[in-house]
Design a protein that fits this description.
This protein has 217 residues and is of the alpha+beta class. Helix content is 31%, strand content 23%. The protein is built from 6 helices and 7 strands. The chain has helices spanning 2-23, 54-57, 62-68, 101-110, 135-144, 194-207, and strands spanning 72-77, 87-93, 121-128, 148-151, 156-164, 167-175, 182-187. A hairpin with a 2-residue loop joins strand 5 and strand 6. Helix 3 (62-68) runs antiparallel to helix 6. The radius of gyration is 34 Å and the shape is globular. It starts with a helix and ends in a 10-residue tail after the last helix.
C-alpha cells in the first residue's frame, strides 16, 4: 500500500513539474553567436572622399622642368574639374601668353615643332589615391579597353591614343609604386608628342611620395 502511494505521489509531482515547464518560466536563452562582418577595410593612401592640394603633392616644378626639358612655370590646381580624383594638377609652360595676333603668329612660327606656347598646358595629372589600385586588375583593364601596354622606364604603364585631327593625343596611366595611387597623365590641348606626355608621367611618378599625400584636407 505504501509502495502504491509513493508511486502515485511521484507521478503527481512529475505531472506538475512537466506542467511547470510548459506554463512557467521560459527556458534560458542561448548565447547569440556574433556574425563576422563581410566588409573588408581597405588601406589606401588617402581616405575616401578626401582631397589634396597640388602645392602639397607637387611642391616644386623643378623635377618637371628637368624631366620634360622645358620650363614649367606653374602647377595649376584643377581638382574641382574631377571630384572623384584625389588631386588634379595642370602643368603650365613658363612665359607670358601672346597678347596680340602678331605676337601669336611669331610664337607659333618659333614653337611650331613643339606645339606648346607660353602659358599653354603641357599635361594634366590626375591622381586617384582612395581606390584599391591592384596591379593585376589594372593590367587586365588596360587590355580589356584595347589600350597599349608599355614600359614607363621599367614600370608597367597603359597608353591610350585618341585621334585629334590629323594627329593623336596621348594619355599615360600607371600605379605609383610607393603610394599605390593610380596616376593619369593626359596631354594638353596643343600637345601631340607622345614622348612629352611620357616624360610628364615619369616626372609625376618621381615627384610623388608617401609623405606628399599624407596630409589630406
Amino acid at each position: 500500500m505504501k509502495t502504491q502511494l509513493l508511486a502515485a505521489s511521484l507521478m503527481l509531482v512529475s505531472t506538475f513539474a512537466c506542467k511547470g515547464e510548459l506554463e512557467g518560466e521560459e527556458p534560458a536563452e542561448k548565447p547569440v553567436e556574433k556574425k563576422k562582418s563581410n566588409v573588408v577595410k581597405l588601406k589606401t593612401a588617402v581616405p575616401y572622399g578626401m582631397h589634396l592640394a597640388c602645392e602639397d603633392v607637387f611642391p616644386d616644378t623643378a623635377i618637371f622642368t628637368e624631366t620634360m626639358g622645358d620650363e614649367i612655370g606653374e602647377i595649376r590646381d584643377m581638382s574641382r574639374s574631377n571630384s572623384s580624383a584625389t588631386v588634379v594638377c595642370s602643368l603650365i609652360r613658363a612665359g607670358e601668353p601672346p597678347s596680340s595676333p602678331k605676337e601669336l603668329k611669331t610664337l607659333e612660327e618659333k614653337y611650331a615643332k613643339l606645339g606648346v606656347l607660353p602659358g599653354d598646358e603641357y599635361c594634366m595629372i590626375s591622381a586617384y589615391c582612395s581606390l584599391d589600385n591592384d596591379e593585376d586588375t589594372f593590367k587586365a583593364k588596360c587590355e580589356e579597353d584595347g589600350n597599349q601596354r608599355t614600359s614607363l622606364e621599367g614600370q608597367f604603364a597603359c597608353v591610350r591614343a585618341t585621334e585629334k585631327g590629323a594627329e593623336y593625343s596621348y594619355t599615360y596611366k600607371f600605379i605609383e609604386p610607393d603610394t599605390k595611387c593610380s596616376i593619369e597623365a593626359m596631354a594638353g590641348p596643343s600637345v601631340n608628342d607622345e614622348a612629352m606626355v611620357k616624360n610628364c608621367a615619369v616626372a609625376a611618378r618621381e615627384a610623388m611620395t608617401t609623405a606628399s599625400v599624407s596630409n589630406p584636407k
